């Protein structure tokens, strides 16, 4: 691993690239599941997981929502959250009335041509026996809702995270959308 140089641990929180998807066809959902085999794709060896995505929807209109489901938890009641978002001139803090994990808006077919939204999800302490918390940092521009988002979410499960689904609220992620999953190893040195 990159954090061992000549037999010496040198790097604290090393990130490991687990998976990458670059869509060649539209898709409504991108899913990653732990391999549970002790290899790179086994989520049980990581402290945190990080998703970096660049996406756009083919839905008509200007914006659609994008969110995350963990462990096949698809009910809105499975998540709690708090949003803060702004457009450069005003800021809104709110508890979403339709709670979804990590909800944010991404550009649609009606937004400025070739504009993609970007989002980073950071899932913390994914193998603990407590509810799973994660942060969303996202930004989009090119239409009527030029927004930067920060969302604190909790998935109401004590089980380890073994599956992550990135989902559009309507339509599909278009071809050219990219998604990367990283595992963050526990700190190895003092």
> What structural class results from the helix and strand content?
mainly beta
Spatial arrangement of strands, main beta sheet: 3-14-5-10-11-12-7-8
Mind summarizing the main beta sheet? 8 strands, antiparallel
Radius of gyration, whole Å: 17 Å
Report helical residue fraction. under 10%
Uncertain segments: none
Give the H and E element order: EEEEEEEEEEEEEE
Q: Quick check: average pLDDT?
A: 88
Task: Estimate what percentage of residues fall within beta strands.
Answer: over 45%
- Using the alpha-carbon principal axes, give the shape: globular
Calculate the terminal CA-CA distance, rounded to whole Å.
18 Å
Number of strands: 14
Q: What is the overall number of helices? A: 0
Structural overview:
With 190 residues, the chain is an all-beta fold. Helix content is 0%, strand content 47%. It has strands spanning 4-5, 8-9, 15-22, 29-33, 48-55, 63-70, 79-86, 91-94, 101-107, 117-123, 132-140, 147-155, 163-168, 178-184. Strands 3-14-5-10-11-12-7-8 form an 8-stranded antiparallel sheet, with no helix packed on it. It has a 4-stranded antiparallel sheet with strand order 4-13-6-9, with no helix packed on it. A hairpin with an 8-residue loop joins strand 10 and strand 11 (132-140). The radius of gyration is 17 Å and the shape is globular. The two termini are 18 Å apart.
